[in-house]
């Protein structure tokens, strides 16, 4: 169980030999260096675990463009008024002060894989022995004709938490009687599969609790969605007549949007909204593409047993940017993958023990106050892919006490995972 | 001023060590002559509320320590005084500063355990209603004369159900702590490594027997939680032994 596989052993020996072959003056002054790009659920966790478990033997640098990190998970609860913005925003200070991680604030714009060097937007370069790439997603603006980065200032996507989330909340809070909200949902694969539908629930909660008579229309390019039965049951129960979902067999295809007119044109009809929430198609964060780690899908293939990039054995790709088989793109998944990657990074650089990879995920969603649902699975590598070994999902018709307990569990999980990410 | 208000007022200086010992001593004296507060509770209602506590605490004839110490004679008992129970550092410290479980102290503790003794590891968020606390304390008091087991630190073999048999098999195994630490990285996404409790119980420093039995109770549907059931589904004996070794070796921070 605890033995290294032949492949892992070869990699460990390879790293060891390389160290011995280095000039003596380099060996004397340099600890192995790990650079982590992206300070979210994947990157912050990886940086923390590598620093913590190597006990100072590895030099860890964490690159993120922001000083603080606002979690996408629970940003819907901010939208619904259950959390304030500060409570979903976290600082990197503890990672720096308690774990000795060097935080670099800026954009990584390129990776010279031969020289093992990350280029920053300001022209500086950061060398690495192992690189962990966890940049999350980039939005494919033109996947929805008429949408663009500029258009997002009028019709927010709010699929990266931050100012966009605050903009969406301001627009939601301004909705009045008789107005309509139109959401354009994303095609697979995308970050947080139940996210759009939890968001609709939170929007409906805000409208209902203020007594605003307004409708929410979802135009979906998919013919089914995550936790569909649970959400539709909840919408029927709590928000009767407020939410309408149209799949492609009804709307016939999304032809385009006009954010100034506030319209979404489909084969069936043109839908008008005082608020458009457009969530376009997604791909791996740009640095992953710049580094040549993506394939035709726009995401990064990895070795299922280690999260190591199939393009470069010195690089690991985790989180939303990776092609992680059956695992959804979620903060929980990224956190889980980060631990496998961190263990393999230490195995490479310090010859520490590498155990067989094991992954897990749970996604909680809130439908209405104290009405929480969840879906989850355990995963392991199988035939070159990450495959589910056991799964579960909340059931329709569950009693109120169980739903409340599920919501409370999600609040506990939020506290837990953010402590696990940021220390 | 009622004693409860006094208590509230001085809770603010509980963090000042010198003041703390003095306050604890004063409260202990006050409580010995106090019956008005305790008298206001309804023990029958308190017994129901005890459902919140009984996963971790036993009380009554033959009570043993579980995740928490047994509660026989808790009113007036010196904090962290049950031999053979591993208290958190924070609780030990409070005890050396003279904390005694007077009615007033227990009331303040039950209201907000983590504020009253920061860093203690009781997995309970607190009881906000004053009447609930009074009821619970009244019931705990009514149980005052119950005698604990002769050896409360010994865990009574639970011969009921398959979980016990599986537990004994794994208890006899030696767990690989390093493997447990790796596997445990999955647990700490929800169960905080510091032992802090914010909606999900602490598993830091829990005894091996209890830890192992709990996992088997999820496997055998004695305990019901879909997330936990899923997490334990693929854990074999070696994994459970490793996890128990790791988490039982940790101290709450």
The CATH architecture category of the largest domain in chain B equals Orthogonal Bundle
- Report the average pLDDT across residues of chain B: 80
Decide which structural class fits the backbone of chain B.
Answer: mainly alpha
Give the low-pLDDT segments of chain B.
1-15, 25-36
Query: What count of domains describes the coordinates of chain B?
Result: 2
CATH superfamily of the largest domain in chain A: FAD/NAD(P)-binding domain
CATH level 1 class label of the largest domain in chain B = Mainly Alpha
The interface involving the most residues is between:
A-B, 33 and 27 residues
| Rg of chain B (CA only) | 19 Å
Q: What is the second-level CATH architecture of the largest domain in chain A?
A: 3-Layer(bba) Sandwich
- Number of E-type strands of chain B: 0
Distance between the termini of chain A: 30 Å
Assign the CATH topology of the largest domain in chain A: FAD/NAD(P)-binding domain
Structural class of chain A: alpha/beta
Multimerization state: heterodimer
Number of domains of chain A: 2
Shape of chain B: globular
The shape of chain A is globular
- CATH homologous superfamily designation of the largest domain in chain B: Cytochrome c-like domain
How much of the sequence lies in strands of chain B comes to under 5%
Describe this structure in words.
The complex is a heterodimer of chains A (423) and B (253). By secondary structure, chain A is α/β, with parallel strands linked by helices. Chain A folds into 2 domains: 6-136 and 285-356, 3-Layer(bba) Sandwich (FAD/NAD(P)-binding domain); 141-281, 3-Layer(bba) Sandwich (FAD/NAD(P)-binding domain). Helices cover 33% and strands 27% of the residues of chain A. Chain A contains 12 helices and 24 strands. Chain A has helices at residues 6-21, 24-29, 41-54, 75-79, 93-99, 163-173, 195-210, 228-238, 248-251, 286-290, 331-350, 400-422; strands at 33-37, 59-64, 68-70, 89-91, 102-105, 108-112, 117-120, 125-127, 130-133, 137-140, 180-184, 215-219, 243-246, 254-258, 263-266, 270-272, 275-278, 281-284, 300-301, 315-317, 322-323, 359-368, 371-382, 385-393. A 5-stranded parallel beta sheet of chain A has the order 5-2-1-9-20, covered by helices on one side. A 4-stranded parallel beta sheet of chain A has the order 13-12-11-17. In chain A, helix 1 crosses helix 11, helix 3 runs parallel beside helix 11 (331-350) and helix 3 (41-54) packs across helix 12 (400-422). The longest helix of chain A is centred in the last third of the chain and has 23 residues, at 400-422. With 253 residues, chain B is an all-alpha fold. Chain B has 2 domains: 3-142, Cytochrome Bc1 Complex, Chain D, domain 2, CATH 1.10.760.10; 162-249, Cytochrome c-like domain (Cytochrome Bc1 Complex, Chain D, domain 2, Orthogonal Bundle). In chain B, 49% of the residues lie in helices and 0% in strands. Chain B is built from 13 helices and no strands. In chain B, helix 4 crosses helix 8 (130-142) and helix 9 crosses helix 11 (208-219). Chain B is globular and about 50 Å long. Mean pLDDT of chain B is 80; it is low at 1-15 and 25-36. The chains are: A alpha/beta (423), B mainly alpha (253). Chains A and B meet through helix 11, strand 23, strand 24 and helix 12 of A and helix 10 and helix 12 of B.
């Amino acid at each position: 169980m605890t033995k290294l596989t032949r492949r892992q052993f070869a990699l460990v020996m390879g790293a060891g030999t390389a160290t011995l072959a280095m000039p003596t003056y380099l060996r004397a002054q340099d600890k192995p260096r790990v650079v982590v790009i992206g300070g979210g659920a994947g990157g912050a966790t990886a940086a923390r675990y590598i620093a913590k478990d190597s006990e100072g033997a590895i030099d860890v640098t964490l690159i993120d463009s922001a000083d603080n990190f606002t979690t996408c998970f629970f940003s819907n609860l901010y939208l619904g008024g259950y959390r304030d913005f500060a409570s979903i925003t976290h600082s990197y200070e503890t990672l720096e002060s308690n774990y000795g991680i060097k935080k670099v604030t800026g954009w990584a714009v390129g990776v010279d894989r031969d020289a093992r060097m990350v280029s920053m937007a300001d022209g500086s370069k950061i060398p690495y022995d192992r690189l962990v790439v966890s940049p999350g997603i980039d939005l494919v603006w033109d996947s929805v004709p008429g949408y663009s980065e500029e258009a997002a200032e009028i019709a927010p996507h709010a699929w990266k938490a931050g100012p966009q989330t605050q903009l969406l909340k301001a627009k939601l809070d301004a909705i009045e009687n008789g107005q309509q909200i139109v959401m354009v949902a994303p095609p697979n694969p995308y970050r947080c599969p139940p996210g759009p539908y939890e968001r609709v629930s939170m929007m409906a909660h805000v409208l209902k609790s203020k007594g605003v008579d307004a409708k929410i229309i979802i135009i979906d390019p998919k013919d089914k969605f995550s936790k569909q039965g649970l959400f539709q049951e909840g919408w029927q129960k709590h928000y009767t007549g407020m939410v309408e979902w149209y799949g492609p067999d009804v709307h016939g295809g999304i032809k385009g949007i006009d954010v100034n007119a506030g319209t979404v044109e489909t084969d069936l009809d043109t839908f008008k909204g005082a608020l458009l929430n457009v969530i376009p198609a997604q791909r791996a964060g740009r640095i992953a593409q710049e580094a040549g780690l993506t394939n035709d899908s726009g995401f990064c293939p990895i070795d299922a047993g280690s999260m190591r990039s199939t393009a470069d054995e010195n690089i690991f790709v985790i989180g939303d940017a990776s092609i992680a088989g059956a695992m959804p793109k979620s903060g929980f998944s990224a956190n889980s993958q980060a631990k496998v990657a961190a263990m393999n990074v230490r195995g490479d650089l310090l010859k520490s023990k590498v155990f067989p990879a094991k992954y897990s995920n749970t996604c909680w969603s809130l439908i209405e106050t104290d009405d929480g649902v969840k879906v989850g699975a355990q995963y392991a590598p199988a035939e070159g892919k990450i495959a589910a070994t056991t799964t579960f999902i909340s059931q329709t018709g569950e009693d109120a006490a169980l739903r409340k307990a599920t919501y409370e569990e999600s609040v506990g999980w939020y506290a837990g995972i953010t402590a696990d990410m940021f220390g | 001023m009622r004693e409860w208000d006094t208590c509230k007022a001085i809770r603010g200086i509980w963090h000042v060590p010198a003041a703390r010992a003095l306050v604890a001593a004063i409260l202990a004296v006050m409580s010995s002559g106090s019956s008005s507060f305790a008298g206001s509770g309804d023990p029958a209602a308190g017994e129901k509320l005890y459902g919140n506590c009984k996963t971790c605490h036993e009380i009554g004839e033959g009570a043993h320590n579980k995740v928490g110490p047994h509660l026989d004679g808790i009113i007036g008992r010196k904090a962290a005084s049950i031999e053979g129970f591993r208290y958190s550092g924070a609780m030990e410290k409070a005890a050396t500063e003279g904390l005694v479980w007077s009615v007033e102290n227990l009331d303040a503790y039950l209201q907000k355990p983590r504020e009253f003794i920061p860093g203690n590891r009781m997995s309970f968020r607190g009881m906000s209603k004053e009447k609930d606390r009074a009821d619970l304390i009244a019931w705990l008091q009514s149980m005052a004369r119950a005698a604990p087991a002769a050896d409360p630190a010994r865990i009574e073999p639970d011969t009921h159900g398959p979980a016990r048999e599986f537990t004994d098999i794994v208890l006899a195994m030696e767990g690989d702590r390093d493997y447990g630490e790796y596997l445990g990285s999955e647990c700490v996404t929800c169960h905080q490594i510091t032992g802090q409790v914010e909606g999900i119980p602490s598993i830091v420093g829990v005894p091996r027997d209890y830890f192992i039995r709990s996992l088997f109770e999820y496997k055998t549907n004695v305990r019901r939680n879909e997330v936990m059931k899923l997490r334990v589904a693929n854990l074999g004996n070696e994994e459970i032994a490793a996890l128990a070794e790791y988490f039982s070796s940790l101290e709450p921070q």
